[in-house]
Write a structure and sequence with these properties.
2 domains, 13 helices, mainly alpha, two-stranded parallel ribbon, binds tryptophan, Tyrosyl-Transfer RNA Synthetase, globular, binds adenosine monophosphate, Rossmann fold
Amino acid sequence: MKKKIVFSGVQPSGVLHIGNYLGAIQRWVRLQSQTTNYFCVVDLHALTIRQDPEELHANTLRVAKTYLAAGIDPQHSTIFIQSHVKEHCELAWLLATLCYMGELSRMTQFKDKSRNKGENIGVGLFTYPTLMAADILLYHTDLVPVGEDQKQHLELTRDLAVRFNNAFGETFVVPEPLIGEVGARIMGLDDPTRKMSKSEPKPGHYLALTDPPDAIRKKIGRAVTDSGTEIRAGADKPALSNLLNIYHLMSGISIAELEERYRGQGYAAFKRDLAEVVIEHLRPFQERYAALDDAEVMALLRAGADRARAVAAETIQQVKERMGIVV
Ligand code: AMP
Ligand code: TRP
């Protein structure tokens, strides 16, 4: 049987945190041996928010190294930088011609990121989902493992694929989102009502994958808790639910068992143990990350782009022909 095709990506904008890891990258690692995979560093998406050029450059390589250190295996997966395959931009334009203003205006991420900006909202932020749809559709992707926050973008991608197929003939595979139940949404340590985000400037908000043990202990020690003293998950306990979820995902111990284990104990003991669990879980990742050689990683990315381009070029050719573009 033909292997399913998987595509996903992370933006090189800021530090990667455990939300990116638990919500996305860790799940890619588990999938990769059974599927054909494309894992992309989506640098062009990062440009929708103003980036410092040096930072963007450094972060692009950091994200690729994060993929590798987390266990993405270049034997199973094509790792590449989005801008190295120009077909992404080309298809984004062609898809934009099929996309409605109304559809893009309804995107929650656009509404969030453009709030309080008046008239000065970048056009790129608005058309962002058409580039994301292009990323996915170029590779005949079946499955897109992402965090819950990307579900709406996936629905738009599906709509655009169907719209194109109806107008110009069967061309695109209509992809399915693959969203985990737990870990789909890791919340901020300082505010459990907001998703953990790398664009958040307060360092106490997120746990970076590269945080040293001391920083992890400090951040977890200071994490917001709920009123009361019980260590229990539930709708009335957003902070504890989030911490229990992180504990569960990093230790494999079920939330029910954790609640049992910490019954009658205070927050201090729970947080102390949680910090150690996170430190131990991240230790092998951090060791692998430190051992990676930048030049070797770049060579891998270039080879990945060559492989991706071969597929993308073929798709674009077909799309253009069907649309009546002289090729
Ligand atoms: P981004 O940081 O927006 O490029 O996101 C990269 C990937 O991480 C996407 O699949 C997101 O859905 C996922 N992700 C980002 N933040 C979180 C979070 N707080 N919890 C779970 N997944 C997340
Ligand atoms: N928009 C995604 C995010 O912010 C990143 C992304 C870009 C992506 N293109 C993609 C994810 C294609 C999956 C598939 O997280």
